[in-house]
Amino acid sequence: MQFLEINQSSGAVIIRLAFSSLVDFNHIQAAERVISNALDVSVTIDPRFPSDSLDDACFPTIMALLNRHSAAVNGTFEGAGCHIENGKMTITLTHGGLNILKTTKTDRILVQLVQTHFGCSIELCFDGVTDVDTESDEYRRLMEEADREVALKAKEAAATRASQAALSKPPADEPAKPGKPADPSRPPLDGLPIYLETAQMVFGSPIRELPTPLSSLDPYGGSYTVWGCVFDSEVRTFRDGAKLRYTYKITDKTSSIMAILWLDVKRDKAKIVALEGVKKGTCVLMSGLYEFDRFANDNILNPKGIAVVAPYIKQDNAEHKRVELHLHTKMSSMDAVSDAESLVMRAAEWGHKAIAITDHGVVQAFPEAMNAASKAQKQGKDIKILYGVEAYYINDGANIVCDRTTGWQICSI
Known about the structure:
The protein is an alpha/beta fold and 413 residues long. The chain has eight helices and 16 strands. It has helices at 25-39, 59-69, 98-103, 106-118, 137-167, 269-274, 340-349, 366-378; strands spanning 3-6, 13-18, 43-48, 81-85, 88-93, 123-128, 194-203, 222-237, 243-251, 256-264, 283-293, 298-311, 354-360, 384-390, 399-402, 409-412. Strands 8-9-10-12-11 form a five-stranded mixed β-barrel. Helix 2 crosses helix 4 (106-118) and helix 7 runs parallel beside helix 8. The longest helix is centred in the middle third of the chain and has 31 residues, at 137-167.
């Protein structure tokens, strides 16, 4: 057993088991039922198989694992065959629907699924009957199933989040912190870059609605639930010191808005303490009224409920990690916007053993990269900085500036 996760609020158990060979998925599901009945809890076994067991016989197991992520595309794989050779998986479709698989990003999910459960990277290809008539009854049926699956997943996620949020109140006199996702290596099933099940209410009633993209908010206002990452915050004291004004600027990468709320220093002490956990970089769920504010002279969100949530951080699951040898920081004018520390820390988090800094003709990022490597080492992540530069060479025997009419050389090197 590699991993055991117990959700104390829902009682769900996830068990990660590493097998020495391929196991029939029906046996895994039977074991889940036996353990669930014995413990009276929901049990999910997350299997790991050796990479050398990946062959054509694994296709039913891969499809069963895919069914946990997206059951709506099962009809597309009816009667399909599979051949795996030299790191290439070729799936032969018999009913078309390749456009559906691409639209629902099932092809990406399959590649990630094989990487996760078999520990190896594959190249995925499709052949056979790949196209389907978009006007046909079969296409409409498949799309209806996909829509129902998305709606069901969203409803389940909202229900899970609401039930857990109702039970998970922040401890008294402590800032709010999000819960931990069951498996951070897996992207959230609802397509959002946050794990809704990790929601920890800061204040207000449990948030049951799925968030609306900030770019879709009606400029004329309305009640909305949104999510975003705080990129700026401010707390100001009212003139008499009796109230505090909290201003949060959040973005979900589709747009950005400002949220403002007023709290009474004496009456809202618990909220004030909990809001200490909402700062720059925190991901939040907010529910409230989106309306025009005369003080800000702009549309703002007046939050009635705030929860903190854990974001999904992209993982590097490659067995053999890469070493980036060509990398620019924001010291490369007009060619990069990331600072050296964030790049070095991300590489260290992904398990990279080294990373190069090669800015355009400058070395100003070296000190920051050096300090970032020291910071990573203190956190137990050893990474080496390869100091470099993207330099430019010219022919040292050529004239750089000269007068073509007189042949007079102005400058040469």
